[in-house]
Specification:
Helix content: 40-55%
CATH superfamily of the largest domain: Type I PLP-dependent aspartate aminotransferase-like (Major domain)
Number of strands: 17
CATH topology of the largest domain: Aspartate Aminotransferase, domain 2
Strand order of the largest sheet: 4-12-11-10-7-5-6
Strand content: 15-25%
CATH architecture of the largest domain: 3-Layer(aba) Sandwich
Shape: globular
CATH class of the largest domain: Alpha Beta
Largest sheet: 7 strands, mixed
Bound molecules: pyridoxal-5'-phosphate
Number of domains: 2
Length: about 475
């Protein structure tokens, strides 16, 4: 069958954008999640972005925005990296016989090989379509391989929002109303004693941890992961590292667990592997685990996903890893991360509302806290009584409106801003962020109570809260 030329003429994506682009917020309100446009209108983030490149977004008035959020971490290489873009075009233009479901897709093999070269102690990969799917696969593999039921996870953990991943979510607000969930158990992040108590019950399949938690940007205490690994081995339970956000160069190591010198049995990753173009998730694991799960031909599809290993996703992943190696992206993340952290840490003594700057590489948390001086303490306390996290929301708001910088508060009820910019940023972006942050902090410290513009923002934030990861 030949494709009809007239059908091709009838459909034009540019035309859809031209005709419907102006209605984007109305369409969203009517057909998708109605709270999203409400929230964006309320806080004035309802921009009409027209294009993007590298670490910058551009709106319809021509204003540029420095993107320190990178789509929750997917744009590790910035937007529209030419090598990734070409690879995705090529995957389309080659007219491949993709997703036959009865052959061995060559790009999946090549990507698995390339990914595992960065994790020599692991042997096999399962490709799904998102971070939560990568975690789901790890949970299933761990339970099946050990024959045990329970997964131990950490307070404040975020591993995705499908039901299995939700069972290991450390935030009550996300779980509420969706139960009953799996019988998993939370322990405080970094609490070895609590982990050991759970392991002694003999029914733990695995301990699941983000080496750096997205919520609050909490870094595992030094030595914790190593000690946890020893305990797990002693109790014949597995270590699963969730590297969906902190993996693939974000922390200045290829994977964040490598900084701690551990060898997790299963590693989930996603986000950046997409090159920002095609959703993908990868679960890497040891040979024996995969062999147990896929133990016979009968079990060939016992865990699988129709679109997993699709050519576009694999092409984007291969190109992303190529660029990471060829352009020294991980090294840049470490260097720029150190520079940005240092310059922000230097401000801690200058601003009493600024308590700590932490993180690793280009995964940085800026924590605000109670000021010492009485004049500033009163408005701070009032805000805390209204809702914890409002001060950080206001800083995010001011960075956006005054300085065209996109950031986020790193979770509900925390006074922490998270920075996860593209790993390709340079000194110009560091300078722009630091100068803007100083301006906003100056303003926050100047008045009693805080100046009108910031207080007005507080009011808006009180009415409309956004839930962040
Ligand atoms: N794990 C971590 C650490 C994450 O940060 C996220 C998403 O933010 C996920 C899992 C879920 O990924 P996805 O949103 O692609 O399902």
């Amino acid at each position: 069958m030949r494709y009809s030329v007239s059908t091709q003429d009838e459909f034009d994506l540019r035309d859809v954008l031209t005709r419907r682009g102006a209605d984007r917020y109305e369409l969203q309100a009517r057909y998708l999640n109605p709270q999203l446009p409400r929230m964006l209108h309320a806080i004035g983030f309802d921009r009409v972005y027209t294009h993007a490149e590298g670490a910058y977004l551009y709106d319809d008035s021509g204003r540029d925005y420095l993107d320190m959020l990178s789509g929750f971490g997917v744009f590790a290489l910035g937007r529209h990296h030419p090598v990734v873009r070409k690879a995705v075009h090529d995957a389309l233009d080659l007219g491949l016989a993709d997703l036959t479901q009865f052959d061995a897709p060559p790009l999946a093999g090549a990507l698995a090989e390339r990914l595992l070269a960065h994790v020599p102690h692991l042997d096999r990969v399962y490709f799904g379509n998102s971070g939560t799917e990568a975690v789901e696969a790890a949970l299933k593999y761990a339970r099946f391989a050990t024959g045990r039921k329970r997964i131990v996870f950490c307070d404040h953990a975020f591993h995705g929002l499908t039901t299995g991943s939700l069972s290991v979510n450390g935030a009550r607000d996300f779980r509420k109303g969706f139960g009953p969930l799996l019988p998993d158990t939370a322990v405080p992040f970094g609490d070895l004693g609590a982990l050991e108590r759970e392991l002694k019950r003999g029914d733990v399949a695995a301990f699941l941890i983000e080496p750096i938690q997205g919520k609050g940007v909490a870094v595992a205490p030094p030595g914790f992961l190593r000690a946890a690994q020893e305990l797990l081995r002693e109790h014949k339970a597995l270590l699963i590292a969730d590297e969906v956000q902190c993996g693939l160069g974000r922390t200045g190591d290829f994977f964040a667990f490598q900084h701690d010198g551990v060898e997790p049995d299963l590693v989930a990753t996603a986000k950046a592997l997409s090159g920002g173009y095609v959703p993908v998730g990868a679960t890497m694991g040891r040979d024996w685990i995969f062999n147990k799960v896929y133990s016979s031909m009968d079990r060939v599809l016992v865990h699988d996903s129709t679109f997993g290993s699709n050519a576009q996703a694999m092409a984007a992943g291969l190109a992303t890893l190529h660029v990471m190696d060829a352009e020294g992206v991980v090294d840049n993340a470490r260097k720029m991360g150190e520079l940005l952290q240092q310059r922000l840490t230097d401000l801690v003594d200058r601003y009493e509302l600024l308590h700590e700057v932490r993180g690793r590489g280009l995964m940085i948390g800026i924590e605000f806290g109670r000021p010492q001086s009485w004049t500033r303490r009163a408005p701070w306390t009032a805000l805390q009584l209204a809702r914890k996290g409002l001060f950080a929301q206001t800083v995010v708001h001011a960075l956006f409106h005054r300085h065209g910088i996109l950031t986020q508060v790193s979770g509900d009820h925390v006074e922490v801003i998270k920075l996860i910019p593209p790993l390709t940023i340079g000194e110009a972006e560091v300078d722009r962020f630091v100068a803007a942050f100083i301006d906003v902090m100056d303003e926050a410290h100047r008045g009693t109570p805080l100046t009108n513009s910031l207080s007005r923002d507080f009011g808006r934030m009180l009415v409309h809260q956004t839930r962040n990861r």
